[in-house]
Write a structure and sequence with these properties.
two-stranded antiparallel ribbon, five-stranded parallel β-sheet, 49% helix
Length: 367
């Protein structure tokens, strides 16, 4: 049965969060905004731009803001979207004829989003660029994320980048640009976005209605609004609090609580996210924060009640920090391998928790 368009999830949207095209402004990336506007004003508007930085820091939001600004005529130096322009209204409705969005397509036969951006999607982009623009002016394409292209798609895109049509702008969102073809990277100008500062994170999250949880979400998501929204949509703060409370029982781990925490990772993936992926993410963040605490002291911005005291106890020095950092790398690799062979997620998470509980810093911790 063919899936109705309104039931197809958007591959470039964080579950439970607004789509980046809905953002009215870009916060915390003034240098990138200034670089792009200066290039446009100086007649140096390159045909392809690579927007890089950690996942969720606002690369897609910036891409959509640039698209709105360019298609609305670049009248001012402010990229904040004017919701009343015809172009912005059409972009919000996904009906702007001069804008193309390339993202992972829906696979009706499999009943899910494709794992990759295929060559067929890039061929659609070729057709878009070779059409006569209905209203003249620039045509803009957003590829989100360029990391998702398979090799055939990447090679097809390279042909466009080598011989771009006049008045075209291609915006490539890339979380890991090193994985792209060097020939693609060399034909793009780069805008690098850094993680957002806690104050900026708090402002954005408050704008999105997450007033009470803004500080712990900012602390746990490492400056990534997208990650903060994903955590909020999956009750990530409650799950992280439970993880902190669990490790607070060391050196005598509460195995019943550990089993309960691990079993939650076996839940069915849905529109709001994957419980196994959430569990692995939280373990990864917990270990990273433990390692950081051993080197720099317990985090000033706590992501859970009692977290600072626990980290001071479990990671009091640089030797402990090294143990936790090594554990993070080891367990991250195990999680990837376990996902590849479809191992029981609850059993895998439980094994990880038990291994961490037996590590030298955990055994040495005093109650």
């Amino acid at each position: 049965m063919k899936t109705a368009p309104e039931d197809i999830p958007e591959a470039d949207r964080v579950p439970g969060a607004p789509h980046p095209r809905e953002a009215r402004r870009v916060l915390g990336h003034d240098a990138a905004l200034s670089d792009f506007v200066s290039a446009a004003r100086g007649g140096r508007l390159h045909h392809a731009w690579l927007l890089t930085g950690p996942r969720g820091v606002g690369k897609a939001t910036l891409a959509w803001s640039i698209a709105k600004w360019v298609l609305s005529g670049m009248a001012s130096d402010d990229l904040s979207a004017d919701p009343d322009t015809p172009e912005t209204r059409r972009i919000m409705a996904m009906s702007e004829p001069r804008l193309a969005l390339i993202r992972r397509p829906w696979d009706d036969k499999a009943g899910r989003l494709s794992a990759q951006i295929t060559v067929d999607e890039i061929r659609r982009l070729l057709s878009f660029f070779h059409m006569s623009a209905a209203e003249g002016g620039y045509r803009v394409a957003i590829i989100d994320a360029a990391d998702d292209m398979n090799i055939a798609a990447a090679n097809a895109l390279l042909k466009v980048l080598e011989e771009p049509p006049a008045q075209t702008l291609i915006l490539l969102v890339a979380h890991q640009p090193a994985g792209l073809l060097p020939t693609i990277r060399s034909r793009c100008r780069t805008l690098r976005l850094s993680p957002l500062a806690p104050r900026q994170m708090g402002e954005i999250l408050s704008d999105l209605g997450l007033h009470e949880d803004a500080e712990p979400l900012a602390a746990l998501s490492d400056g990534s609004v997208g990650e903060a929204l994903r955590l909020a949509g999956q009750d990530g703060l409650d799950r992280y609090q439970a993880l902190v409370d669990l490790f607070a029982t060391l050196p005598r781990l509460d195995r019943l609580a550990a089993a309960e925490w691990a079993n939650a990772a076996a839940g069915r993936a849905g529109a709001d996210g994957d419980p196994f992926d959430l569990a692995i993410t939280l373990l990864d963040r917990f270990l990273a924060r433990l390692a950081r605490a051993g080197l720099m002291g317990a985090p000033l911005d706590q992501a859970a009640r009692g977290e600072a005291a626990l980290m001071a106890r479990l990671s009091p020095d640089d030797l402990s920090a090294r143990h936790w950092a090594e554990a993070q790398a080891r367990l991250s690799a195990r999680a990837r391998a376990g996902r590849a062979v479809n191992i029981d997620p609850a059993a895998l998470v439980m094994d990880m928790v038990l291994e961490l509980a037996q590590s030298p810093p955990a055994r040495a911790a005093t109650a």
